[in-house]
């Protein structure tokens, strides 16, 4: 559980009321985040994607654009998220074809007072959802799996890494 220095949830004030975290007095620093996620499907579907044979078009290019656009729109989706001046957003995809897996890595960066982890996670999950949408006509077994923040840096906590079991 992510809590403030007082042991309270960061989006609750002392009285327990919801509020947007005040970052006015925080210094601007370079903040970066890396999110990971994966999409599981039939190996045959992976083959279609790799050979650009999905009728809706280039699955990974569309997923990349969707993820980038989503990261930039995170404050419109997540109610208490700060609007950030994003300086970098990138998504990369790798395959484990025989296992039917697409791994997604999203990287975000800003020079601001608060982190870009939610933006990285938004990019990865929307990219995964886009892969689902583009391939659902040929594969009804697609699952979106294990999206998480693998690393974030630039804030008062320094660099934080995480790898799920």
Give a description of the structure:
It comes from Dictyobacter formicarum. Its EC number is 4.6.1.17. Substrate binds at residues 80-82. Belongs to the MoaC family. The radius of gyration is 18 Å and the shape is elongated. Strand 4 (143-155) and strand 5 form a beta hairpin. It has helices at 43-50, 59-72, 74-77, 117-135; strands at 29-40, 86-96, 101-112, 143-155, 158-161. Helix 2 (59-72) packs antiparallel against helix 4. The chain has four helices and five strands. Residues 1-6 have low confidence and may be disordered. Strands 2-3-1-4-5 form a five-stranded antiparallel β-sheet, covered by helices on one side. The protein is of the alpha+beta class and 165 residues long.
Rough shape?
Answer: elongated
Which segments are poorly predicted (pLDDT under 50) over 5 or more consecutive residues? 1-6
Average predicted local confidence, pLDDT: 92
What class do helices, strands and sheet pairing give?
alpha+beta
- Strand residue percentage: 25-35%
């Amino acid at each position: 559980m992510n809590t403030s220095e007082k042991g309270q949830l960061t989006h609750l004030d002392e009285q327990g009321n919801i509020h947007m975290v005040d970052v006015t007095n925080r210094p601007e620093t370079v903040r970066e985040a890396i999110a990971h996620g994966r999409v599981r499907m039939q190996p045959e579907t992976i083959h279609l994607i790799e050979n650009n044979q999905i009728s809706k078009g280039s699955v990974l290019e569309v997923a990349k654009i969707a993820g980038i656009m989503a990261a930039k729109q995170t404050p419109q989706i997540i109610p208490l998220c700060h609007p950030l001046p994003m300086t970098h957003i990138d998504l990369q995809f790798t395959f484990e074809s025989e296992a039917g897996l697409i791994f997604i890595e999203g990287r975000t960066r800003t020079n601001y007072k608060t982190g870009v982890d939610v933006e990285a996670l938004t990019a990865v999950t929307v990219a995964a959802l886009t892969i689902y949408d583009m391939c659902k006509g040929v594969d009804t077994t697609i699952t979106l799996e294990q999206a998480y923040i693998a690393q974030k840096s630039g804030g008062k906590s320094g660099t934080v890494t995480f790898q799920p079991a």
